[in-house]
Amino acid sequence: MRHLILIIALVFGSSASAVQPGLGFGENDRLDELFAEMQSEAGEGAASAEREAIRIFRQSGSAAMNLLLERGFTALEAEDYTMAVWHFSALIDHAPEFAEAYNARASAFFLMGKYGEAMADIETTLVLNPRHFGALGGMGVIQEQLDHPENALRAYKAALALNPHSTDYIDAVKRVEDELFMVH
Question: For the residues 5-18, what does the mean pLDDT come to?
Fold first, then answer.
């Protein structure tokens, strides 16, 4: 709970122009534009901005590091989670400031049922990239799995604040609010 509050504070307390390490010249400015589009656009405009932001999040700045990321994602798709963790861990060893490496490894840990490890990697992702709405969404999923709906709702709302037209986050907030309303 303490970690969740810290992360949400980092997200909302961060500057709109926070710099993500490892991005090429102009990419942080482009992210600022994309987040503005996600805030103001709806429909395909917001979805296109979201896809482009994710593409930028996945840029390590190194062909070798991008290869490790790609191999990790390939292992995830093949459901070889141990190999995915290995590739993502190697990437983290070589590029410890690359937020997407931690986020990707969190996904592998989650799929292995290792929620503590996944949460630790999500926390690191958000320290390195406070606007990583995917990591916040992943945090929400884990909190739901752990039967902590209040924490899940906070994480989903934080993701929704960054990406307000995401139907995934809109649906998640509604689902958890409905669950909490039924409980109380």
Answer: 39
Residue-wise burial string across 160-178, b where 16 or more C-beta atoms lie within 10 A, e elsewhere: bebbbbbebbeebbeebee
Specify the DSSP element, H or E, that contains 56: helix 44-57
Residue 12 is which amino acid? Answer: F
| Ordered domains of the chain (ranges, CATH) | 2-11+63-183 (1.25.40.10)
Q: How far apart are CA 45 and CA 20, in angstroms?
A: 23
Q: Answer for the pair 135, 158: CB distance below 8 angstroms, yes or no.
A: no
Question: Distance between CA 5 and CA 110 in Å, rounded?
Answer: 21
| Residue range 25-81, pLDDT digits in tens | 456 789 999 999 999 877 788 999 999 999 999 999 899 999 999 999 999 999 999
- Are 20 and 31 a contacting pair, CB within 8 Å? yes
Q: How would residue 182 be classed by pLDDT, with cut points 50, 70 and 90?
A: confident
pTM listed for this prediction:
0.84
Q: Say if CB 106 and CB 118 are below 8 A apart.
A: yes
